[in-house]
Amino acid sequence: MTEQASPGADGALPGKPTAAARTTLSQIMTAADTNLLGTVHGGVIMKFVDDAAGAVAGRHSGGPAVTASMDEMVFLNPVHVGDLVHVKAQVNWTGRSSMEVGVRVLAERWNESTPAVQVGSAYLVFAAVDENGRPRPVPQVVPETEQDKRRYQEAQIRRTHRLARRRAIKELREKRAAEDRQNAGGAGDDLLTVLPEPARHLQRQDVRAAEGV
C-alpha cells in the first residue's frame, strides 16, 4: 500500500524524482478488444492509458488520485490482435494538488523479436484527493534527466494553453450572454414604440414580470 508523504518543517512535502513513480503496463490484445474494422478499439487503448496514468499519479502522490482531464490523445498507428502493447507513463509536471502524466503507447508482435513501434501518446491531468474527495497537496516532481526537464517545460506550456483557452471561452460566453440580454431588451423597447399607449402599459408589465421586477 502506498504511504502518503509527511510534510517537512516548512509544511511542504518533500519532492520526488520522476523515476520514483514511472510505470509500465503490458498486455496482449485479443479478439475481444477489436472494433468493426478488426483492429483494437481506441477506447480499449484509452482505458489502458488511463489505468497506467492513474497508477503513476497514485504512486507519486502517495494516495488516491482521480482523472481530471485528458489533455491530448494521439493515435499514430493501428493496434492488431496479437500485439503486445506496452504503456509507459510518468509524471511530467506537478502543481499544488494536480499532476500531468505523460504516456507513450508501444506495440510489438507477441511472438516476434522485432522492435516495438510507438502507436500512440497522451497527456492526462490528475488531481490528488483525500478521503473526503477534496484536493490534497502532492510532492513536487524533480526532473532527473534532460528529457525529463524538457517534458516538464512542455507540460508548463500545455498548462498555460489550457488556462488561456478556458479563460477565452469563458469570456466569449459571457460576452455572447450579455449581447443576448441586450438584444432581448432592445426588442422589447422597439415593440413599445409601435404599440398604442394602453398596450404599452401592458407590455411594460410583461417585461417587468419576465425580468422578475
Give structural notes.
This protein has 213 residues and is of the alpha+beta class. The chain is 39% helix and 27% strand. The longest helix is centred in the C-terminal third of the chain and has 49 residues, at 146-194.
List keywords for this structure.
single chain; 213 residues; alpha+beta; five-stranded antiparallel sheet; two-stranded parallel sheet; 3 helices; 7 strands; disordered C terminus
Concise structural overview:
This protein has helices at 42-61, 146-194, 197-210, and strands at 16-17, 23-28, 65-75, 83-94, 98-109, 117-128, 141-142.
Total number of beta strands: 7
The end-to-end distance, rounded to whole angstroms, is 59 Å
Spatial strand arrangement across the major sheet: 2-4-5-6-3
Rg computed from alpha carbons, rounded to a whole number of angstroms: 26 Å
Helix percent band: 25-40%
Largest sheet: 5 strands, antiparallel
Ranges where pLDDT stays below 50 over 5 or more residues in a row are 191-195, 198-213
Output the structural class.
alpha+beta
Tell the overall outline. globular
Strand content: 25-35%
Determine the mean pLDDT.
87
Task: Give the SSE order as H and E letters.
Answer: EEHEEEEEHH
